[in-house]
Amino acid sequence: MELKGTRKLAALVLMLERTAASRLLQGVPEERLPEIGREMLDLAVCPLPEEEQIRILTEFRREIDEETGRPDPVQRIRGLIEASHGNERAEPLLERIRNSGSPWSEIALLEDLEPAAIAEALRYEQPQVAAIFLRELDSTKAAEILAILSDELRTELLLRMASRPPASPDVVARIVRSLRRRAKPEEAAADPRRLKRLAELLNRIPGGEGKKTLASLAERDAGLAEKLKELRFVFDDLILLERKNLQKALGSIDMALLTRALHSTSPELKERILGNVSRRVRERIEEEMESTAEPSQRERIAAQREIVKTIISLADAGQVDLMARDRAES
Questions:
Q1: CATH code for 233-316?
Q2: DSSP secondary structure string, 57-115?
Q3: Residues with Cβ within 8 Å of residue 148, at least 6 apart in sequence
Q4: How many other β-carbons are positioned within 10 Å of the β-carbon of residue 63?
Q5: Integer Cα distance of 227 and 209 in angstroms
Q6: CATH code, residues 107-184
Q7: Phi, psi (5° rounding) for residue 125?
């Protein structure tokens, strides 16, 4: 290991505990030791500012990472700071690092994102940019992201990660901020009206192609696909469904499930559903609702979701048209 600058190396030796410092000096050429010793004496009298010490420790961490693999950077620096400044000083100094605008503070903001979302964002970045980002990321999360990417892109990124020199902290921070905007576009994707519109478009695709399109979308953006899947059809949409399609859908649903789902629904929706089953089935459902305890909200929602799942399956099979509406009811 070679940290450039005699004064920097001397400062690092002073910050490390005795065993680690001795091991570090064992790798230094003998002719450099007198010069390093003089710098150590000078720094013992006039220590470096804490910010400079933190930068030296960060660079030391980078050197170790390149030689031994990628450990958790926060834990690694915590250990170094505890060794040089004591346990009580470690956390305040780490907090200053996190809030300093360093790549760590930016990368920490990505912890709440799923690997699939980050992988999707990386697909639109230049390979050299994606490689810089992955080199800075925790090894476990980086591996999860690489596993999602295509073989070709994964190989390209690994080659670049192995061959390119480390980027400056400022460059890494900018890359991380850009990726976060790509991976978590809340403002654009969270608009419920836009998502509902996209779900309706999926429903209008004939011949079961909507399901295939949704599956393809899930490979690129699992979060968006799941939201659209939930919005394709909700239980309350039964009140809008054209009578023939509604009767077809209800004929495929278990009566006990339908009974649980109808509890606490609006009178209009309840009448719309019961008005499209046979008189015998209606009487049985009404009797069951009156004679049994009301299900919990969790049970009712679970029943409604199961019914919706059945109806969407019928739609994907071409047996029910989710977009067909009775004109008088629309």
A1: 1.10.220.30
A2: HHHHHHHHHHHH----HHHHHHHHHHHHH-HHHHHHHHHHHHTTT-HHHHHHTTTTS-H
A3: 115, 116, 119
A4: 14
A5: 18
A6: 1.10.220.30
A7: -100, 160
Q: What H or E segment, with its residue span, contains residue 233?
A: none
pLDDT along the chain (330 residues), means of 10: 67 75 80 84 76 70 56 56 64 58 54 73 79 76 80 79 67 70 54 74 72 81 79 85 91 91 89 93 92 88 90 86 62
Q: How far apart are CA 233 and CA 63, in angstroms?
A: 54
160: closest CA among 124, 116, 115, 126? Answer: 126
Half-sphere exposure (Cβ direction) of 201: Cα atoms closer than 13 Å: 9
Token duo for residue 324: 């067909």
| Residue 106 CB neighbour total at 10 angstroms | 21
Number of residues that make up the chain: 330
The residue written with tokens 């410092």 in the block is 21
Helices (H), 185-251: 186-189, 192-204, 209-220, 222-231, 243-250
Write out the residue limits of the CATH 1.10.220.30 domain(s) in the chain.
107-184, 233-316
* Spatial CB neighbours of 9, under 8 Å, sequence gap ≥ 6: 3, 24, 28, 36, 39
238-257: burial string, b at 16+ Cβ within 10 Å, e else: bbbbbeebbebbbeebeeee
pTM of the model: 0.41
> Cα separation of 290 and 326, whole Å?
30
Cβ burial of 15 (10 Å; 0-12, 13-18, 19+) is: buried
